[in-house]
Amino acid sequence: MLQSVNFFKSSFSTLVHISKPSPTTRPRLTTLVTVGVSATVLLTVLSLLILVDHFALNYARREAQQRLQQLSWQMRDALNGAVRRATGDVQLLGSLPSVRAARTPAEVRQALESLQKTFPDYAWIGLVNPQGKVVAGTQGELEGADVSGRPWFRQGRRALYAGEAASAAPAGQKLPAGAEPWRFIDAAGPLMDADGNYSGVLCVRLSWGWMRRLAQTMLAPAADQQYAAELFVVRGDGTVMLGPPGSEGQQIYSDSLTMARSGASGALKESWADGRSYLTGYARSGSADDAATLSWAILARQPEEQALSGARALERQILLLGAILGAAMALAAAIVTRRLTRPLNELSHTIEARLATPDAVPTLPAIQPVDTFHEAQVLSRALAEMLRNEQHHLDALRGLNERLESTVAERTREIARKALQLERALGQEQSTQQLLQERAAELRAILDNAHDAFIALDPGGVVRDWNLQAEKLLGWKRSEVIGQPLAAMMLPLPLRRAYERDMRQLADSADGATTVLSRRVELTLHNRAGQELPVEVSLAYVPRSSGHLFIAFLHDISERKQLFASMEELALRDTLTGLPNRRALMKTLPEALQRANRSGQACAVFFLDLDRFKQVNDRYGHEEGDELLRQFAQRVRGAVRKTDTVGRLAGDEFIVILEMLGSDAAAQEAADKLLPALRQPFTLKTTSVTLSASLGIAVHHPDDPQDIEMLLGRADRAMYRHKQQGIQQRARR
Fold it and tell me: Which of 690, 677, 603 is nearest to 640 (CA)?
C-alpha cells in the first residue's frame, strides 16, 4: 500500500512539473522586475545624455558661431556703408555748382554747413586749394591753415580716399574730455572745375560716435538675451579701434584676426590672451586695394561656456528628470509585481507544503482556489482537481491493494506508461497542426502586409494567389483574378507573346527557370483602368508534389521614374532665373548646329552681358542684383521668338540660340529688336535702374565646322568689342 502511495505522489509531481525546493535561494520575481525597470530607465537617461552631449552641444556651438558671424557681417556692412556715404558725400559736394563755381569762401561755407546739419556725425567739412591751404571750413575752422602735409590731402588729390584721422581732434578743434578717446575718419577727394581741371580737395571728417552707437545697438539684443557678446574693430596693425572697456588702443593677436586680415569671413573657437575659450565671428571691412575704404578687421566674440549654457542646463534637467522617473517607475514596478505575484506565492507555499508531507500521511493537504486573476484561478482549480483525483485513487488503491497489490501495481504502471505515450503522441500531433496553422496564418499576414504585390501562377500562367498590395497596385480584387490568365488582363499585346513563350520554356525546363529567375526585370503593365504602370518584377520557382508554382513580386517604380526625371530637369535649370543653365546650353547647342546642317539654314548665338551690373549689386545688395537678373532674363525671353533658346551661362552672362535664320541680317534684326528692350528701366524692390547690355553675335552656316567652343568664343569676342565701343561713346560724351 505504501508503494502505491509513493507511485502516485511521484506521478503527481511529474505532471505539475514541481520539484522539491532547491537549497540555492533564487531572486524573487518582484526584485527582478524592479531591477529591470530601474536598469532600463538608467540606460535611457544615459543614452539621452550622450545624445544631448553629442548633438545639442554641437548644435548650440554652430548656432552661436553663426550668430557671431552674422554680427561681424552687420558691423562690417555698417562700417562700409558709413565710409561709402562719406566718400559719396565728397563726390556730391564736388558736383554742386555752389561749391565748384563759388566766388567767395562764404558761399562754400554755407553749402558745407548745410551738409553738416543734415549729418551731425560730420565733425568738420572743408575745401582746400591745390596748394594745401584751407579756403573754407564749417564754422570757419582752419580757414587759411596749411594742411598740405595731411595724408587725406596728399591722397585726396588723385582719387577718393578714406582713412583714420592722424590726430585726435578734428582739424585742430579742442574737444571736451570724456570717458572714451575721440577718434575720427577722414574722407577726401579731388574737386574739378567746370572744365574738368583739378581745383582743390574736399575733406569730410566723420566722428567715431556713430560707430559706438551702432555697436551698442547691435549688442543690445544680445545683452537682453544674456549672450554676453562683444564687438572688436581692429586696425591693420592689430590695434583695437572699438571694443569692450579697457581694450581700445591695445594690440591683440588671435587666429580670428589673422583670418579676417586675409579677407576671409566665418567663425571659430579659439583661446584669447585672458586664457578663456571664446567663439569668435570674424570679417574684414573694405578692400586692401581700394584707398576709398577702410581695411579693418571686425571680430564678434562670446565666451564658450555662455554660448553652451542652454545645452548644459538641458543636460542637468534630463539627469534630474531621469532620476525622478527611475525612482518612481522602480517603486511602481515593485508594488505592481508584489500584487501580481501574491496569488502565485500562495500557490507555491501550498505546493511546497504538499511536497513536504510525509509519505505515511493518508490524507493530502487541500489546495484552496485563488480568485485574483484568471490564470491563477485556472491554475489553482487544476491543481485542486488533480489533488482530489489523486486522493480518490489513493483511497481506491488502499481497498484493492490488500488482494491485488502486485497485479494492480503492474497494470497501473503499464497503463500510466501507455497513457503517457498516447498523451505525448496526441500532444505532438496537436502541436504540429497548430504550428502549421500558425505558419499558414503568418504567411498570409506577411503577404497581405507586404509592400510589394504578390502573384502566384501555375505552369499555364493562371493566377492561383493574389495579395492585398496586388489589389491596390493593379485594381483587381483577389476574388476576380483567381483562376484567370494573367497575360490577358494586364500585359500589353507586344509583351503577351513573349510572356507566353517564356512560360512554356519555364514549364518544360527547370534549368531554364533557374536562369530566368536569377534576375530582376522592369516591365510596363496595364492596371484595371488601362493605365500604364512601370514595375520591377522578380520571379521565384516553387516545386510541389503535384507540379510547381511560379511566384512573382511586383514593385511599383513610378515614383523612382518620376524622381529621376525631376532630378534631370533640375540639373538643367538655373535656380535663380529658371532658364537653362550652362550644362543645358552645352547640350542644346550641338543639337541646334546639327539641325542647321540638316535644314540648310543658318543659326546664330547671342552672347549677352549686363553693363554695370556689379555697381548695382554693390550699391543695392545681392537681393536687388538677383531681382535685376530675373527681370533681365524675363525681358530677353520675351524679346525673342518662342522657338529660340535663352539660357544663363554664369553671373550676368546670357546666351540666346536663334535657329532657322534666312540670312545673317535676320540675326542683326533680332539683336536690334532686343537691345532697345533691355535699355528700358528695371523696377526693383527699393529702386529703379536703367542699364544697357553688350551683345555679341556669332552666326553658324550649314557648311561651317561644328565647333562649339569656337562659336562661343566668336560671340564672346564680339560682345567685348561691343562693350568697348559703348565705353568709348560714354567717354566722348
Answer: 677
**Helix residue ranges per DSSP H, 1-56:** 2-15, 29-51
Task: Round to whole Å and give the CA distance between 419 and 407.
Answer: 18
Give the rounded distance of the alpha carbon of 348 from its chain centre: 60
Tell me how far apart the alpha carbons of residues 711 and 593 are, in angstroms, rounded to a whole number.
Answer: 10
DSSP string, 447-464: HHT-SSEEEEE-TTSBEE
What's the rounded Cα separation, in Å, for the pair 321 and 498?
67
* Of 563, 477, 491, residue with least CA distance to 521: 491
Question: What pLDDT sits at residue 697?
Answer: 93
For residue 360, the model assigns a pLDDT of 59
* Cβ-Cβ contacts under 8 Å for 289 (sequence gap 6 or more): none
pLDDT, residue 716, reads 92
Task: Give me the pLDDT at residue 246, please.
Answer: 78
pLDDT of 169: 46
Q: Long-range contacts: 256-261, Cβ < 8 Å, 24+?
A: 256/280, 256/281, 256/282, 256/299, 256/301, 257/282, 257/297, 257/299, 260/234, 260/284, 260/297, 260/298, 260/299, 261/236, 261/297
Q: How many CB atoms lie within 10 A of CB 611?
A: 18
Are 636 and 608 spatial neighbours (Cβ–Cβ below 8 Å)? yes
What's the rounded Cα separation, in Å, for the pair 373 and 336?
14
Torsion of CA 107, 111, 116, 119, to 10 degrees: 170
Q: Grid coordinates in use for 210?
A: 556713430
**Maximum Cα–Cα distance across the chain:** 156
Q: 445 in helix, strand or coil?
A: helix
Query: What are the cell numbers at 733?
Result: 560724351
Cα dihedral: 30, 35, 36, 40 (round 10): 140
Amino acid identity for residue 96 in this structure: L
With contact defined as beta carbons under 8 Å apart, do 88 and 80 qualify?
no
- Mean pLDDT in order along the chain per 10 residues (733 residues): 44 44 58 76 76 73 84 85 86 81 81 83 87 88 87 87 66 45 79 83 84 71 58 85 80 87 88 87 84 85 81 76 79 77 72 68 65 70 76 74 76 85 84 79 72 79 83 83 77 69 63 53 77 80 73 80 74 85 89 90 92 88 90 91 90 91 89 90 90 91 88 91 77 59
User: 239 and 250 in contact (C-beta within 8 Å)?
Assistant: yes
Q: Helices 510-517 and 493-508 meet at what angle, rounded to 10?
A: 130
Contact between residue 367 and residue 380 where contact means Cβ atoms under 8 Å apart: yes
CA gap 683, 718 in Å, rounded: 29
Backbone angles phi, psi at 347, to 5 degrees: -65, -40
Exposure class string for 703-728: b at 16+ Cβ within 10 A, else e: ebeeeeeebbebbbebbeebbeeeee
Locus of grid cell 569668435? 280
